[in-house]
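Per reviewer request, we include the raw input and output of the structure prediction for the construct analysed in the revised manuscript.
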Amino acid sequence: MKRLYTNKILLLALIIFGFFLPKLLSGKLPIPSDALVGLYHPWRDNSFDGYNAGKFPVKNPLTTDPVLQTYPWRFVSIDYLKQFKLPLWNPYSFSGEPLLGNVQSAAFQLSNLLFIVFPFNVAWTSQIILISILGAFFMYLFLQSLKLSKQSSFFGAIIFPFSGFFISWLTWGNVTGTAIWLPFILYCINKYFESEKPIYFLLLILALTQIFLSGHSQTAFYICLTITLYLVPLAPAGKNLKKAMIICGSILLSAMIASPQIISALQFNSLSNRNFDAAYFPGRLDWFIPPQNLIQLLAPDFFGNPTTNNYWGIWNYAEFVSFIGIIPLFFAILSIFHIRRRTLFFLCLAALSLLFGLINPISLLPYSLHIPFISTFQPSRIIFLLNFSLIVLSAFGLEYFFKKENFKKNSYTFLVISTPIILLILLSKLSPNIFPKIELLDAPGIAFRNLLVPTMSLVFVLVILEIKKRQTKATILYSAIIVLTVFELFRFSYKFTPFSPQNTIFPKTATTDFLKSEKKPFRILATDRRILSPNSFIPYKIESVGGYDPLYLKKYGQLVSAWETNQYSQEPTFNRIITPQNYDSSITSLLNVKYVVTFDEINNPNFEKIMEEGLTKTYYNKNFLERAYFVPKIEKSSNDKEELENVIQNVDFKKISFSQEYEFTGGDISARVEVKKYQGDQIVLATSSTRSTPLVISNINYPGWRAYIDGRESKIQEANFVLQSIIIPPGEHNVLLKFAPKSFYQSLYLAALGAVLSFVIFIYLWRQKYQ
């Protein structure tokens, strides 16, 4: 029996690895870097793999975020960890921002061990594959804990990593890296209720901690919600109630252990503009799941596919695709005809996910009431729970299919799944006028063609039913079901998932080589999103005033908005992508912008063209201010509006700065400052001045930055709306500025307490069980 179990797990891993193997053998990795070299400059100005400059093909332009967000953020985290430093600050985007406070950086995810051991791109690929294998393995364990057969458990396990939600987010790493823990957590809960073995309590703590650390808050929230609902029918009273309380306590303990991440994220969120950027507004079509997109349960490409450039549905495809395969869906529906107590929970969970995923008065409540945290979630992503529930139901359905000879229910199920497909085929051919008219796209033709594969899968279902009627050996029938399911899921997954040649993953260019080689610190300004697209400069360790993140500091957003519009605004005037273009403003120099990268010819004597690479031009800013400089006068402002209006007046920041905290008038000064050492989260300066003078540092004045003058802590005060300033006494001094937030170090005590309490409770449970 044990050998059979091992063989199933090994086969599961081999099938999943087999999905990646052909691409790996051809030298391609699961990251959409084809989008980097195919869409953005200066890479687009170069030739790769024999394609002319500007002609590199992009498989899936929808999946750019892994190369513009998760890869760069993980790169920074790993870079810190390899230096034995805490990954707290990201100096590269938005003129600097918290790194750990950005949950998606996944600084303490377990899979980061791979990055410590292996080269980054090898670790990235290993992580993506390992997440898929672990997800399947965890699903197998969970289905086994529901007392399903090994065959049914294997069937459900093989579906999970190739479901619509999982494939849509596969190359991100953080979303799926969080999602895989749900089945393992439920497995631990089942096993603990069944055996009360303390080891499952410890495993539960590990898994729960990882959902907080793996990089996706929304998925973690859905997992916590599912756990809560799962416990309700398990613990009505008595001994089970005590077990349920221990499970609930494990959630609290895990949150304590993960508190350095959680508290950093809450602080960053409170100072950010997240609610403004992500809030729902009436008439927004891409927020909830459009009801018509439930067709994607049957035909994922009914509305086309971004990989074939023929998607005509509501943007975007990845947010709405819920496909788990026609054959698995058949068995999921079949389980409803055999509804039992064990399947009722998952049917209810599927219904609940649709209730909150589709627009209705109930699902609108978090947004109309502006409930903190939840109101920033895009509700369509609850498809995760819909997929999960349907996969579990499909495993139950397969179990019933083999155990019960009920041909009538099999026929009813086939009618339920085949009727809408047949109707859609008829509509696409006989009533094309009901489809929207889209220039250059034949919507009914696209729909019809993409219904052919689901129709073929329906034929497979008919073949399966016929084999069942003929009383064929169960092993033959089961093997046919697995092979056909793998075929349709692999086809769907290959179509959407981008794999890119290794030489396209942040390759060298003349522009990046030049900027990378220049003495730091300095920042760049790229005047177009298509040039060094926000965050793409991070793997080159180039700092920028731009960035791409739904989570950014509100005050920095206000500064950039005022910089662009030349007027004060209480709310930023842009969304999550920040690309300032007003290089003529004095704010360009204020923010330590030494180079402007642009498509334009700049006819301004203050800018000197340094180099040109294809369409990409790099200009030197002759007036740029160093990262730290002395200023003889600080003018006090009474509020944000007054200070920001002063800052955008194109003043000479070497002569005057502004602050709401203090004023200073010292007259002429003789002072100098030199950067002796620079790292992203700290800077060492040597200063000399004849009198006490304000030193302005072009660091974002975020809580947690600390300053030391000759080893003694000195107060950092705000200057120029978002920057830092320190009063430097006369004479020569060494000044250290470093990012060391007290909130983080205090949270380490909370994390240690959580770990100690977990161990104490484990010992208590061990003695209760075995003594």
